[in-house]
Amino acid sequence: MATVPFSSDPEQDPRVRAVFDDIRATRKTDFINNMWRALAFDPALLERTWGEVKALMATPTALDPLTKEMIYIAVSVANSCGYCVHSHTAAAKAKGMTAEQHAELLAIVSLAAKTNHLATGLQVPVDEVFDLGRGA
Amino acid sequence: MATVPFSSDPEQDPRVRAVFDDIRATRKTDFINNMWRALAFDPALLERTWGEVKALMATPTALDPLTKEMIYIAVSVANSCGYCVHSHTAAAKAKGMTAEQHAELLAIVSLAAKTNHLATGLQVPVDEVFDLGRGA
Amino acid sequence: MATVPFSSDPEQDPRVRAVFDDIRATRKTDFINNMWRALAFDPALLERTWGEVKALMATPTALDPLTKEMIYIAVSVANSCGYCVHSHTAAAKAKGMTAEQHAELLAIVSLAAKTNHLATGLQVPVDEVFDLGRGA
Amino acid sequence: MATVPFSSDPEQDPRVRAVFDDIRATRKTDFINNMWRALAFDPALLERTWGEVKALMATPTALDPLTKEMIYIAVSVANSCGYCVHSHTAAAKAKGMTAEQHAELLAIVSLAAKTNHLATGLQVPVDEVFDLGRGA
Amino acid sequence: MATVPFSSDPEQDPRVRAVFDDIRATRKTDFINNMWRALAFDPALLERTWGEVKALMATPTALDPLTKEMIYIAVSVANSCGYCVHSHTAAAKAKGMTAEQHAELLAIVSLAAKTNHLATGLQVPVDEVFDLGRGA
Amino acid sequence: MATVPFSSDPEQDPRVRAVFDDIRATRKTDFINNMWRALAFDPALLERTWGEVKALMATPTALDPLTKEMIYIAVSVANSCGYCVHSHTAAAKAKGMTAEQHAELLAIVSLAAKTNHLATGLQVPVDEVFDLGRGA
């Protein structure tokens, strides 16, 4: 189920085709996952979203590719996005995440959630030394 | 402000003192941040929470210490825990996180939040190939 | 799947029947969606919930009907309620939401999520001029 | 800080005065906390909100008053509402919540958050036997 | 679907078998739900998670078993964990939760969510009297 | 407090100056709020974020400016971003949001939160007719 229609031939639209071609070339695969097929209902939104994902996640930057995927998974879990957890876990495995690293990622994510809820339940006041914005 | 009383001398309780001593020895600092002072209202909860944090975050494991802190920050941001964002950002900086890495971490966290909301708004069906639990 | 039993004939209960009849009359359709069928397990909860939704969403108020549905969708996405995203997107389309408006709604929701996470990650202090509650 | 102006004399409005009087009588105290002072900017919203809180939280129902406050705190922590955590923790203590019960509440809330994140990270399929809505 | 492989015979691993045996003995049932089958991909994570759940939820403590399950459900709903809502609702029913109590639990959870969003939208300043951490 | 240093003279960096000048020109005010001052720690992140906000929120599009701000507020409340709730409520008021519209916005946001939690607590199955992605 989805909240937008999935076209049977989204690549009839040349803007969609250009994005899909770039996804295939960037990822070196013919597979286009449903996120991009759904976004094809609005070519401008598809272009902007892919452009942003490509620039940050499929381009060499300060952090290594696997670390970036694990951070992405962490946020997706905390935001309860089932689709995103699936797609980025698959991406992390494709980038070499071992079962041991996966288990440790889940252990950290769930421990963080635990102490997040403890700190919020206790309403712990922020220590002065944590203020890195002095002068603000 | 907090939802529990902060004792002026929590280390009168020997269980609290033992945990605080272990925090000081593990982190090689005399500073005990407010999270632990707040948890001191219940020594058993303090012991269990510190034990868990120490085992995962202050002990060598499969992931390197800075990666672990960045994952912790990512979850804390998504769960809107201000205290946790402050304390783990300070910890990440103490472990060498550069301004460039910090900016990239925030860029990934916020991009993930963006696509999390897009995927949820579109109710994108999960692709069959993402199913890693076949046999379930 | 659901956490409450769905009765095969919930309208045997006159209180359920009265609510269902009012839903049909208000929406000018015979269709009763699953939210109300699930709530029928407790007629009092069904009555109060429908009464509140009807008063705000199915009655002329300060905001126009489509704007109200788009606000409802925005909250439902941020709270990760798949059912609610589906039902209110269908309602918004029934009230005239175009594909262009839908795309823009999703663009705003996801941009807001992005800057929400940035502001939380940065722990930006609130500007004094934003204080609208002076005198508090 | 607040996003609405706080009137220095909100009870000049007779609808606000009636609600504040009912809060005082119901709670047997002269103290009106800031939630109600903020809501006074819109008397209709104030009336409806207080009416709903009173009916469920200040009236004898199936669950006992302290259990109800602890459930309220649990949701408020998970939704990161600092104000609500403070006000309902104060209410729970006024209704007899001991330090031990408070610590256990926080332990359950944070353990639930932990396993919530684990189950979401694992995308655990729901067991057939948990389906209580058969026939739907 | 899941993000980890489900083994067809997870109990070949003696650590998994020991945990599953303890779950069966503790719960007096042969049924092992999918959460534990999924966690079996990492026996250490399985052991720690079950140990923690058993100690808090399957052992007599200050709060009674049904109250504990209802608090667990409340957090799971607020964190949008569908699996957890299903499994803990089933557990609460097994511990005697009536339909009336279930309806009231959902009424409190949803009212709390409502006032959480109101307080956050109003940015209500915390009343001084709610500060239970003076001296901090 | 913030997790990044606030420069006392961020406009010494010509990229920051260019963005701040564009904010001033676009908004026709000399005031630069703290969000942008915080983002100035990384000029590239500042440029991209402002560019995106300007294109969607400060440029004529399919939805009118006030509707866009109200949708932004709705998401910010649900994501518990206090800074964002403050800044976008101020923006909505500057664009003409009346007290009546503000009250109704908060009423819808909080009602949506209520039914989001009800639907999640009930685990309501999505009605077939809501499937707008047939063919997927």
Automatic annotation (TrEMBL), chains A, B, C, D, E, F:
GO terms assigned for molecular function: peroxiredoxin activity
Pfam hit, one: CMD
Range of residues in the leader sequence: none
All residue ranges annotated as the Carboxymuconolactone decarboxylase-like domain in the record: 47-124
Superkingdom, natural source: Bacteria
Protein name, UniProt field: Carboxymuconolactone decarboxylase family protein
Record organism: Pseudothauera nasutitermitis
